[in-house]
Design brief:
The complex is a heterodimer.
Chain A (H helix, E strand, L loop, with lengths): L12 E3 L24 H9 L5 E6 L2 H5 L19 E2 L4 H6 L2 H15 L3 E6 L1 H6 L3 H12 L3 E4 L8 H13 L14 E7 L5 H12 L2 E7 L4 H6 L5 E4 L2 H15 L3 E3 L5 H15 L5 H28 L3 E6 L2 H13 L3 E7 L4 H10 L5 E4 L3 H11 L3 E4 L4 H6 L3 E4 L10 H16 L8 H23 L1
Parallel strand pairs in A: 2-3, 2-4, 4-5, 6-7, 6-8, 8-9, 10-11, 10-13, 11-12, 13-14
Antiparallel strand pairs in A: 1-12
Helix pairs in contact in A: 1-7, 4-6, 7-10, 11-12, 12-17, 13-14
Chain B lengths: L1 H8 L6 E2 L6 H9 L5 E6 L2 H15 L6 E2 L4 H6 L2 H15 L3 E6 L1 H6 L3 H11 L1 H6 L4 E5 L8 H16 L9 E5 L5 H13 L3 E4 L25 H5 L6 E5 L9 H9 L3 E4 L5 H15 L5 H21 L3 E5 L2 H13 L3 E6 L7 H9 L8 E3 L4 H8 L6 E4 L4 H7 L3 E3 L17 H23 L8
Parallel strand pairs in B: 2-3, 2-4, 4-5, 6-7, 6-8, 8-9, 10-11, 10-13, 11-12, 13-14
The chains are: A alpha/beta, B alpha/beta.
Chain lengths: 468, 462
């Protein structure tokens, strides 16, 4: 076991209860360790991606654009520009002579062809090296075409995904404050850090509308440029997935004095808590909101609980492992599993902060492994050691679980199933149930070996006794 | 060619919209995955390795570990050497591998890291350390992502493996080298079987038949078993013959050419054996090499294939197809479609390929009156614009053409890489008589279903 963990990574793995809590995080991935992490560019791209009426142009060689082409399940109620992959597809000669001219021409042509509301121009590793003046080109095109053309400083090597989130927030902040806000209700919020995967933002917006609250801007699921321009007119910012958008909330707080609340729409408790927090914020302005919220929660829970109970019966006592991109998701998942009567044996993230891991340490049971920036070798050995029934993660984690004969739940940007809101909890329970209780595991060689071991040993011992 | 054609229509677009190619380092990683005990290693920033893993895993549904030197800002300025060396050491210590395949990225190419020199330095500096880990081979290949596509990266890596490992060490038996290019695990398995059945001992490079399509196992394997044994690669210089697929393959990235130049291993470059005629050429070559007749088993497969061509011809006769993907796959498909009476109206590839046009011409000549429209260095935006006028009946290629198929309401037969929206990509067999048979049935059935879907009556007897 200890052999699996690199000496350099020892303090990024913690076993709750064995020693005082102390964890290192937010450091560069170890060379050769096959980290599950992506890069700065990835961070920017995933946050800005769901803005559906903007052009997203990747300035770099083809890989960066093509590996991020339509990979999120972020739905739109209108334009679909975000589902295309645009790239300057830099060639050797561009690298030698500079890519500014190509970028300029690409922008002009694309803007003329697709008529976007704004353009985001992402820099990649190589742009940082050859030193193209992204700012200059963007300003020039903005002047000529009359739409915002915003550079996103996302050179892949300049940090990890978190640095990319920050670059995305700085890019979005350039739009905030540029639109009219006269008609915005005082009972209004912006939804930050939700990406409308499988239409989740529509579920949450419906809750707020039922409470009597208007949503000004979705940031960024089903997002629109004009809404972002008006976002400073909202009374409150709601920040989910704090890693990705809290920087924007802070900028808006400093510049426009808009307060923010950290919320989560995953799991029963967190969903209800979040709605109550919002109701509490507005209750002096509109007392009916609290009552509306109570009714909404009551109504939803009365529908949800009887169904959930059935799943809980089958899942009680099963063991889960969690490894996700942002630690934020992990908090809600730990609680959601508890709601299903399950224990969490392993929880980790690619980019958690010190506070994140402290919180995870607080809410988990003794013996739980907490891990930062893990890799396939560690993850596979933890899953085997803890003998879990289900692993929650993304595409890169899935085959690790399956090879070990362990169930799996996709909880990443690509999922096509809504997991937020009260209905999302039911979907989650269904998915966990369908994988954990599937009959396929009993045929996998590893599970067969595990279940037949004592028996086999008995037979062997018996045989030995007879032969002797 | 393409530039000229587009200019007559309108100004060519500068940007790439919905690319029909991937970058070179990804191709190199796939090639390295086909060597026994090997770990691909990207010298660059962490994101490249992670993104490519994600992309490849979605197609093969297998664990694909790609290490990275995880360069940060200071390495980009002062050079990535120290991280590369640390990364190599770390991979050796945890993976106990037989080979590390180091591919460069746009970052390390541009900052000017001399990877070959760094690897040599590493081997000298850490000689004892590497000995402790069984002294795994290290192969390095230059794959700047601003130059060429994933298929160039793939072929360059295969060539680099041969160039840096092959020797004239004695081998056992009558070995024949086979370089199949980027084909599926199922195809690789089938090719191995064919060559075996001629009484020959095939060394297939790369061999992804098990490494990217591994059976369920009791123990979690850090590195999946299978792949071309390194000992076999080292003996490639003593093989009696090399067969290399790829009418579009240039000599500069041909692995067979390295063996021919250095060890005088005779070689033949063939088209990827899709369809009757290209497979016949492959089988005839094996007859020549082995001095044996084609085994009856394959004569029967061939006979059944022709029989089905006849049975199915009317359903597909005169249909128009658009094909896109890696150059040699498209050439093979064009050859096959032509012989079954489907007109390939557009043959497209995202790669830049100097032989693509002549190869398509060569495989369609004699049956088609004129060469179909051919386009290399193309993206899906251009494919759509170009193909619209042909009113195609069927699309053949990766799942990235799905939006076009949906728009035009025609079937998409999913082939090649990547297939992200269907199951079983690693089991698609399209080579040889048997693979062609599968392909033929798939296409005929796709056309029948399209006809059925359009019919107001819905026949159950066709």
């Amino acid at each position: 076991m200890t052999n699996t963990i690199f000496a350099e990574r020892k303090d990024q793995v913690h076993r709750k209860g064995e020693e005082p809590f102390q964890m290192t995080c937010d450091k560069e991935s170890l060379a050769g360790a096959v980290s599950q992490r992506a890069c700065v560019f990835c961070g920017s791209r995933v946050v800005l991606y769901p803005i559906t009426d903007a052009l997203h142009l990747v300035h770099g060689p083809i890989g960066c654009a093509v590996y991020t082409w339509d990979i999120r399940g972020a739905l739109s109620s209108g334009p679909e520009l975000h589902r295309h992959s645009y790239s300057t597809d830099l060639q050797e000669s561009d690298v030698i002579f500079g890519g500014e001219d190509k970028l300029y021409r690409a922008l002009i042509q694309l803007i003329e062809r697709i008529n976007p509301k704004a353009a985001f121009v992402y820099s990649t590793c190589i742009v940082g090296i050859i030193g193209d003046d992204l700012n200059g080109v963007c300003k020039k095109v903005e002047r000529e075409k009359g739409i915002p053309v915003i550079p996103v400083e996302s050179e892949g090597f300049k940090g990890n995904k978190r640095a990319g989130y920050n670059a995305a927030c700085r890019a979005m902040f350039q739009l905030v404050g540029t639109g009219p806000i006269d008609d915005i209700s005082p009972l209004s919020v912006n939804i930050l850090g939700d990406f409308n995967l499988a239409g989740e933002i529509w579920i949450v917006r419906d809750y707020f509308e039922r409470m009597g609250i208007n949503v000004v801007a979705n940031i960024t699921g089903d997002g629109r440029v004009d809404d972002l321009r008006r976002a400073h007119g909202a009374a409150l910012n709601l920040v989910q997935c704090s890693g990705s958008t809290i920087d924007l909330a802070k900028m808006m707080q400093d510049e426009y004095q808009i307060p923010f609340l950290r919320v989560s729409y995953f799991g029963v408790e967190d969903m209800a808590d979040s709605l109550y927090k919002v109701a509490d914020f507005f209750k002096d302005l509109e007392p009916a909101i609290m009552e509306n919220t109570k009714e909404l929660v009551r109504d939803e829970l009365s529908k949800l609980y009887p169904k959930l109970k059935q799943y809980r019966k089958a899942l009680e006592g099963k063991k889960a492992a969690i490894y996700v991109g942002g630690a934020f998701k992990a908090f809600s998942l730990v609680k959601a599993f508890r709601h299903l009567g399950m224990t969490v044996e392993l929880v980790g993230s690619q980019t958690g902060t010190e506070e994140d891991y402290k919180e995870l340490h607080e809410i988990t049971d003794p013996g739980t492994i907490i891990v930062d920036d893990s890799n396939p070798l560690e993850l596979s050995s933890f899953l085997q050691e803890k003998d879990v029934d289900i692993f929650v993660g993304g595409v890169k984690e899935r085959p690790i679980a399956y090879k070990l004969g362990v169930g799996f739940c996709d909880h990443n940007h690509e999922r096509k199933e809504a997991l937020e809101g009260f209905v999302g909890m039911l979907n989650f329970a269904k998915e966990v149930y369908s994988t954990v209780t599937s009959p396929v595991w009993r045929f996998t060689p590893r599970q067969q070996a595990l279940s037949s071991k004592p028996q086999e040993m008995d037979v062997l011992n018996e045989r030995k006794a007879i032969e002797n | 060619m393409k530039e000229k054609r587009l200019k007559t229509k309108k100004e060519p677009y500068v940007a790439t919209t919905d690319s029909c190619k991937l970058c070179a380092p990804l191709g190199a990683c796939l090639a390295f995955k086909g060597v026994e005990g090997s770990v691909p290693f990207l010298h660059g920033s962490q994101g490249c390795a992670t993104y490519m893993r994600r992309y490849v895993i979605s197609h093969f549904r297998e664990p694909v570990d790609i290490a990275s030197s995880s360069l940060g800002e200071k390495h980009a300025i002062y050079g990535g050497g120290p991280n590369l060396k640390q990364g190599l050491k770390n991979v050796m210590s945890k993976y106990h591998c037989g080979l590390i395949g180091v591919a460069t990225t746009c970052l390390t190419e541009t900052i000017g890291d001399d990877t070959s020199r760094l690897v040599k330095e590493f081997q000298d500096e850490f000689s004892e350390e590497t000995l402790k880990h069984g002294r795994p081979s290290i192969v390095n290949v230059s794959t700047p992502s601003y130059s060429g596509s994933h298929i160039d990266g793939f072929q360059s890596a295969v060539r680099a493996i041969v160039d840096q490992l092959a020797s004239n060490l004695p081998s056992c038996g009558n070995t024949v080298n086979l370089f199949p290019g980027f084909v599926s695990p199922a195809d690789t398995r089938y090719l191995k079987e064919i060559v075996h059945d001629f009484g020959l001992n095939p060394v297939i490079l790369p061999d992804i038949s098990e490494t990217l399509d591994a059976p369920a196992a009791v123990e979690y394997e850090k590195i999946p078993s299978g792949g071309t044994p390194i000992a076999s690669i080292k003996a490639m210089g003593t093989a009696s013959f090399s067969v290399e697929f790829g009418r579009c393959l240039t000599d500069s990235i041909s692995a067979a050419k390295v063996l021919a130049d250095r060890f005088k291993v005779p070689s033949k470059k063939l088209g990827t054996p899709i369809g009757l005629r290209e497979t016949d050429i492959f089988m005839n070559t094996l007859e020549e090499i082995s001095c044996r007749k084609t085994p009856v088993k394959y004569e029967l497969e061939r006979g059944r294939l022709i029989d089905s061509y006849v049975d199915g011809h009317k359903y597909i006769s005169g249909k128009r197809a658009v094909i896109y993907g890696d150059p040699d796959m498209v050439v093979g498909l064009a050859s096959f479609l032509t012989e079954i009476g489907i007109k390939p109206v557009l043959c497209a590839t995202g790669a830049k390929s100097q032989h693509f046009h002549t190869a398509i011409k060569a495989v369609t000549e004699g049956i088609l009156d004129e060469t179909p429209e051919v386009s290399d260095n193309i993206d899906f935006f251009d494919i759509e614009e170009t193909a619209e006028k042909f009113r195609p009946d069927v699309l053949l290629g990766s799942s990235k053409g799905y939006k076009l198929a949906r728009k035009w309401n025609i079937p998409l037969v999913r082939l090649g890489f990547p297939i992200h929206d269907r199951f079983g990509a690693q089991r698609i067999c399209q080579l040889g008589y048997k693979g062609t048979q599968d392909l033929f049935d798939m296409i005929v059935n796709a056309v029948i279903q399209a006809t059925q879907d359009r019919s107001p009556i819905g026949y159950t007897y066709i």
